[in-house]
Design goal:
six-stranded antiparallel sheet, nucleotide-binding (chains A, B), globular, kinase (chains A, B), 18 strands, alpha/beta, VC0802-like, Carbamate kinase, eight-stranded mixed sheet, 12 helices, homodimer, about 425 residues, about 35% helix
Chain lengths: ~425, ~425
């Protein structure tokens, strides 16, 4: 029998009615001829309740106990889903992480999956079980204790099962019906993509499109697991949702697949930094130590390179999430006070946002950046920082132009049409 | 190190404050020099919530899935209790049933404990762990699935651990501060017993005193585990609560230790039953099949024994819980319709209650029954059925006299005084 992995997130199993709705989708796939592995999250809200109790009990908690407590939510859903399927005459049983076993490292609360031996589940499929309902997000450490994979680890569990069981596909059921060219709340022209390449999905995920966890997409890309994102709350057909797949599976590909944005960004510039070897490390080391997620980094050429300037100085600009600005400033001023770095001025701009266009087609098409910049210029939007990767161009602009910029770029790259 | 087992029921761990309160009691015992095994129930209400979900999902549920779901509540408490102890600098860790492992039969939802290998927990005690917090009420089947011991199985878990680890004592923390001579709500003269024999506790438990589960007392008696019942909500001293122990540990013993009652009883009489071999089986077989818990059974002598009566007939009376009367009547009438039994009349009395006096001292003292009947007669209370065991005398009387009878018997056997 071909194997299908289906994953249902917290909102998809939030109560008994929704569990029944999800089970109907599982039954439909069994009737299509699949042996199914279902990965379930905790009923929405449950994990937060458990985490709240742990934090209240012990602010500096023992992560092993945290994992033992927090993993309970998924166990409950797995049992209830299995019972629901049995009520529909679908032979099903639940599996907790240690029963599979899903073997992980000992890094409690952030464990990595080591392996998933197929034997136990394969044996039950052989005995007539049609659905294995697996509690997501959890595993077993070499010491025999329960581990969790970190928040959102259920997506990763699903992809890992799909890889281990050579599944035909891994369907991620969630509360949106696919991946869009951009946020439909910003432009009604946003269009659902039928397919998107792993690399594009990765860029979109890291840019804040919350459909899939970055880690699960990375894992899917590595093991070439075909991922499908679709809604629990709509009728599913074999073509529902968006398929995240290898780019070879994508026949026609536009230059740009989507426009992403990140609203709460900040831009920090160190003016007239002394330009010497090691200066970047001297700046970004303390920022990393302070837990600042530095995103874009731009260093202009040094003045000595083009002028007869007596001192070798340059301007260094970086961006980070807005709520980390205070920490970033402190780390930089401390480093200056300790004479680790020198600069003349610290300029902070907390009113910026980031707009990105993403597409694997960029690799083979020139002029994408020029087209992007022209579209922004046509709206009189000033670009403050530019950063590019092989399949992405990101810019920082004033936050007030965010929606306008997304709409202009969506139009400029003709994303509302499929051809 | 001597080992102590401490068990906390649902109301004793109902929220984080109560878990902290319970943990304080555990710490006090560690400071007294014990290695402690703590058995925890689910936070009160949690198990009912889980059972409710299972029943709503699947009325004829797969008991294996029921167990997987319902055992989650204890796992949560075990982790939270362990974290709370760690916050108090007490080295503790949580253990789920499968981690110990507590090995059981495969009778899901009503599994029996087979064995508790000591190795894993002993090893951790050897490494400096002072408290093993074990999720009660659950175990592992030979098939590697989670079992539960049935409702209230946490008491049984505690006694089984005390037996397996040769514990000095098994302390059952609950919401009452011990075992009383009778229900203090019925007479303010009720007195807490310092000690009570296993056999007496068994009779009281089966008579509806809800302090301890019958099954856990049986297990304690078999393995001579000294059980102490005490309150989570009072300061504990080494002499708190009531010690349930072997009668050899009880120095002075009254003839009667306590007066128990059961309010909702019914009395059913089959008049003029044909008296032939096998008639009892023909009556009580169908009742057992119908799930009726028959308690007292009284058969009067047959009329042919004392009279020249042409037919051999007798009257057969039994008692059962009031809410099982309809089922009992149906079973009997069905058996009559099928010609399995014959009788002239079925008399049902649903307005009775059962009063019992219990005491190991009865074995060596004559006249206890006479004293009981005299006390009831003095209050003009008519006795409808009498049944006796070696250490117990039970009577059925009209329900309206229940409180009066308890008070009269408590006085008659001078239970308010200790000597």
């Amino acid at each position: 029998m071909p194997i299908l992995v289906m994953k249902f997130g917290g909102t998809s199993v939030a109560d008994l009615d929704r569990i029944r709705n999800a089970a109907e989708k599982v039954r439909a796939e069994v009737e299509r001829g699949y042996d199914v592995i279902v990965i379930v999250s905790a009923m929405s809200g449950k994990t937060n309740e458990l985490v709240g109790w742990v934090n209240e009990t012990s602010p500096m908690f023992d992560a092993r106990e945290y994992d033992a407590v927090v993993s309970s939510g998924e166990n409950i859903t797995a049992g209830l889903m299995s019972l629901t399927l049995q009520e529909m005459d679908v032979p099903a049983r639940s599996w907790q992480g240690w029963q599979v076993p899903l073997l992980t490292t000992s890094a409690h609360s952030a464990a990595r999956i080591e392996s998933i031996p197929r034997h136990n589940i394969d044996q039950k499929f052989g005995e007539g079980m049609k659905v294995a309902v697996v509690a997501g997000f959890q595993g077993l450490s070499p010491e025999g204790r329960i581990t969790t994979l970190g928040r959102g680890g259920s997506d990763t569990t699903a992809v890992a099962f799909a890889a281990a069981f050579d599944a035909e596909r891994c369907d991620i059921y969630t509360d949106v019906n696919g991946v869009y060219t951009t946020d439909p709340r910003i432009t009604s022209k946003a269009r659902k993509l039928d397919r998107i390449a792993f690399e594009e999905m990765l860029e979109l995920a890291s840019l804040g499109a919350k459909v899939l966890q970055t880690r699960s997409v990375e894992l899917a890309m590595r093991y070439k697991v075909r991922l499908r994102v679709l809604s629990s709350f709509e009728e599913s057909t074999p073509n529902s949702g968006t398929l995240v797949c290898d780019e070879e599976e994508i026949m026609e590909s536009k230059v740009v697949s989507g426009v992403a944005y990140s609203r709460e960004e900040a831009k920090i510039t160190l003016v007239s930094v002394e330009d010497r070897p090691g200066i970047a490390a001297a700046i970004f080391g303390p920022l990393a130590d302070a837990g600042v997620n530095v995103d874009m980094i731009v260093q202009n050429i040094s003045e000595k390179d083009y002028d007869d300037h007596p001192e070798a100085v340059t301007d260094m600009t970086f961006s980070c999430p807005n709520d980390q600005v205070a920490r970033a400033e402190k780390a930089i001023l401390d480093a200056k006070a300790a004479d680790q770095i020198g600069f003349s001025e610290l300029v902070v701009d907390t009113d910026v946002c980031k707009i990105s266009v993403v597409g694997i087609g960029m690799r083979s098409h020139a002029g994408v950046a020029a087209r992007m910049f022209a579209a922004l210029k046509a709206e009189n939007i000033n670009i403050k920082v530019i950063s590019t990767s092989e399949i992405k161009i990101s810019v920082l602009i004033d936050r007030k132009y965010m929606e306008l910029a997304v709409q202009a770029l969506h139009d400029a790259f003709e994303l509302e049409t499929n051809s």
